[in-house]
Design brief:
Layout lengths: L2 H16 L3 H14 L16 E4 L3 H24 L11 H7 L11 E8 L4 E7 L6 H13 L1 H7 L2 E4 L3 H16 L8 E5 L6 H13 L4 E5 L4 E3 L2 E3 L8 E4 L3 H5 L6 H8 L4 E3 L5 H4 L2 H6 L2 H4 L4 H10 L3 E3 L4 E4 L2 E4 H7 L4 E5 L9 E2 L5 H11 L6 E5 L5 E8 L2 E16 L2 E10 L11 E11 L2
Parallel strand pairs: 1-20, 5-6, 5-9, 9-10
Antiparallel strand pairs: 2-3, 2-18, 4-20, 7-8, 11-16, 12-13, 14-15, 14-16, 17-18, 18-19, 19-20
């Protein structure tokens, strides 16, 4: 880490360890999150009292790459609609193809993305794009605010210049911009969140609804299969007619209920509601996209700036199938080489989320790796193979009961982009190389350090 970040981390640890009751700091955070409805599933959100600090000097690179990647996603999606031969590259199901054909009503189909990355002092690699419907923005805003209210953080801020991004305000800006481009005229349009009911992040949806209501908007959460469409009017069971639907929830929750979501599909086709992200944004969320971008015939379609980001910030990725391909200047038999070099690769299903069925070679036994290579390369397998990237670690404060200790955790950084503008991010942590809150990982907001105070 940079000298500045090392100084901030050391000072934060010193302040926390000398606090007369560090557990009180943690309890204030968890109680505050619960009071705002920011829980996970039926239990508390796994949290840290320490934010993840990034040197402010690193932020221009993060902003630039995040915004260029959103531009790249939108360009590859447009290729899907203008070049028939490109459709096969994205391995869409018939249901996804049907959803992709629904009109949007505004210019860019990807308005929301969270790009998940591993970042060290020397490298920044984006390992996945979540352009479907990424979670966490309200969690991050509330957690960041509560951390900033602690006496420890106030003491820290007397020595260092520390900032953070407010993500929810950027979401509202993006929703209103899309609504205006779509043709909406209201100053305070009705806003509904829609997703499959029962997911782990459902409490976040309700927390966002409560926030919107405080701002003067009529807002509700409505499950994907609960919508009613009659006589040209889309409404919730409570009778609220949305002008904007902020879509959340994994696209699989929508696809599994194609009959149940027919009311909302009809309303979208009839231009009765503006949905962001549109259902067609799943084109950019598909994990095969990283492999598509690295194909020579696709790479040449991008500008020099876009090619630089693809070449330097995306790890080598291929759709996992029986073929020969290039690997850093040589040619390999893909399944054979991957099978024999497990420590070099990661296998990921093309259309899953939450870390499901992600197999990290260096963390798997030989027999497990062989089994998954066979499964991934079978006719029913839909996987990508990605070159493994070094997973950074960070010492974070943990509590066993009320006892504080600091433990090294594997982390990834997750950067949001809304309407083409970088808007902050969150960090997830785990003891496992598959880092995901759905798998029991923890979460903390990103803050940036611009220097020491005089």
């Amino acid at each position: 880490m940079s000298v500045m970040v090392d100084k901030v981390n050391r000072e934060f640890r010193r302040l926390l360890e000398k606090h007369p009751n560090p557990y009180e700091v943690y309890k204030n955070l968890t109680d505050g999150m619960s009071a705002k409805g920011c829980t996970f599933g039926s239990g508390p959100m796994p949290l840290y009292v320490k934010p993840y600090f990034i040197d402010g000097a690193r932020m221009p690179e993060i902003r630039w790459t995040t915004e260029v990647l959103m531009r790249i996603m939108n360009r590859i999606i447009e290729l899907y609609y203008t070049d028939e031969s490109s459709k096969a590259m994205l391995y869409l199901s018939p249901e996804e193809t049907e959803l992709a054909d629904i009109p949007v009503g505004y210019h860019n189909r990807v308005q929301i993305t969270r790009n998940d990355a591993f970042m060290t002092d020397d490298d920044l690699f984006y390992i996945e794009f979540n352009a479907d419907s990424p979670g966490g923005p309200m969690y991050s805003d509330v957690q960041g605010h509560l951390i900033q209210q602690s006496e420890i953080f106030k003491d820290l801020s007397r020595k260092f210049i520390i900032g953070r991004d407010l993500i929810m305000w950027q979401i509202l800006r993006m929703l209103m911009t899309c609504y205006r481009e779509w043709g909406g005229k209201k100053d305070f349009p009705n806003i509904c969140i829609s997703a499959g009911a029962g997911g782990g992040t459902t409490p976040e949806f309700h927390a966002i609804v409560a926030w919107l209501k405080q701002l003067g908007y009529k807002a509700e959460f409505c499950g994907t299969t609960e919508w009613i469409y009659e006589n040209g009017h889309l409404r919730t069971p409570n009778g609220l007619e949305p002008d904007i639907i902020y879509r959340r929830g994994w696209i699989g929750d929508w696809i599994e209920h194609m009959d149940g979501i027919k009311p909302i599909i009809r309303a979208l086709r009839d231009r009765k509601v503006c949905m962001v992200n549109p259902l067609s944004s799943t084109l950019a969320a598909n994990k095969s996209l990283l492999a598509v971008l690295q194909r020579p015939e696709i790479l040449k379609l991008f500008t020099g700036e876009e090619q630089k980001v693809i070449r330097e910030y995306l790890p080598w990725t291929r759709v996992f199938e029986r073929c020969k391909t290039d690997f850093h200047g040589g040619t390999i038999d893909l399944p054979e080489y991957v099978a024999q070099n497990k420590d070099t690769f990661v296998l990921k299903p093309i259309d899953q989320y939450g870390g499901k069925d992600v197999i990290v070679g260096f963390a798997a036994s030989n027999s497990e790796w062989e089994e998954w290579v066979d499964k991934a390369c079978s006719p029913k397998g839909k996987f990508v193979v990605q070159q493994a990237v070094k997973i950074p670690e960070e010492e974070l404060p943990v509590f066993e009961g009320e006892t504080l200790s600091f433990a090294k955790k594997k982390i990834n950084v997750n950067f949001y982009c809304y309407g083409g503008i970088y808007t902050g991010g969150v960090v997830r942590s785990s003891d496992s190389p598959v880092i995901n809150v759905h798998k029991g990982g923890g979460m903390t907001p990103i803050m940036f350090v611009d220097g020491e105070r005089n």
